[in-house]
Design a protein that fits this description.
39% of the residues lie in helices and 16% in strands. It is of the alpha/beta class. The longest helix is centred in the first third of the chain and has 23 residues.
Length: 300
């Protein structure tokens, strides 16, 4: 292996430390405490663990944590009423509704009911439009974390050739927009892209966010390129015992690491940055709501 490992766990700890320092500053200088409200509908085990981790890290950074756990049979009207209540609460600066929602709830309707300035997931249609037009927006957490790691690895991204594999609204499209804002030349590739391997081999920055385990192999990677693997896929691991599984990314790590200059592992790469950037977004939302300059380096 020749690639430098980009340690997302350590980077996320650094970001959380910066957030905690700024939260202390807000409290001492302005008497403000950023507040994050998380809404969980139903009892999805993975979502419950994620929400618990969010609450723990929110409190550790000195923020106020508001958790709302609702029954899976909660009606759309009840959920929208709660969101309206949180929109009007001055102690709440960020609102996150944990996805996926039960099938009877309209995710787009729910997301767009959140006040755009409190939409710390960056999914509201207003924030999507603001990001696409280069204006001040709340930025989706996972792409923001990727951008932070790329800036750390490269300094300036200006003029670099970037390929994003995957066109989801959550990662692929906002990632492309963020790279464009940092003056990269960006190609957004997807399942219908012709000769995708050759396209990827031209990239100085290769972001894999397609949701296919180990799709990107070393022969897709330009020597010395930076590879950001957003994928989290669980596959069978018979070598660990019957019925055992393991986590892998969208990249075949060993072969890509032989060629790349730097690469994020799975697990321990992009994943830890998502919650760290959620906290950073909550801090940013609090600052903007109170006419205070948001701290540099913690947003796009």
């Amino acid at each position: 292996m020749t690639a430098r490992i980009i340690d997302g766990k350590a980077f996320a700890a650094k970001v959380r430390g910066q957030v905690a320092g700024q939260v202390t500053r807000l409290s001492e200088d302005h008497g403000l405490t950023p507040g994050l409200a998380v809404v969980l509908v139903g009892e999805d085990p993975a979502s419950e663990v994620y929400v618990r981790n969010k609450g723990k890290q929110t409190v550790e950074c000195g923020m106020a944590s508001f958790e709302h756990k609702l029954d899976a049979r909660t009606s759309e009207a009840e959920l929208l009423a709660l969101i309206a209540q949180l929109n009007a609460d001055p102690a709440v600066h960020g609102i996150l509704v944990q996805l996926p929602l039960p099938d009877h709830l309209n995710e787009d309707l729910v997301i767009n009911a959140i006040a755009p300035e409190k939409d710390v997931d960056g999914f509201h249609i207003s924030n999507v439009g603001l990001l696409a037009t280069g204006q001040k927006a709340m930025v989706p957490c996972t792409p923001l974390g990727c951008l932070m790691m790329l800036r750390e690895a490269h300094g300036s991204l200006s003029g670099l050739n970037a390929v994003v594999v995957g066109r989801s609204n959550i990662v692929g499209k906002p990632m492309a927009q963020l790279l464009l804002r940092d003056s990269c030349t960006v190609t957004l590739a997807h399942s219908r892209t012709r000769d995708i391997e050759a396209l990827c081999r031209q990239a100085d920055i290769l972001v894999a966010a397609v949701g296919r385990p180990q799709m990107v192999t070393g022969d897709w990677v330009k020597p010395g390129a930076t590879v950001i693997d957003v994928g989290i896929n669980r596959i069978d691991a018979p070598e660990k015992g019957e019925g055992k599984t393991r986590l892998v990314g969208d990249c075949h790590f060993d072969s890509c690491a032989e060629v790349a200059g730097a690469i994020t592992p799975v697990p321990g790469g992009v994943g830890p940055m998502t919650i760290a950037c959620l906290l950073a977004n909550t801090l940013t939302a609090c600052c903007r709501a109170n006419g205070i300059a948001a701290p540099e380096g913690l947003t796009a």
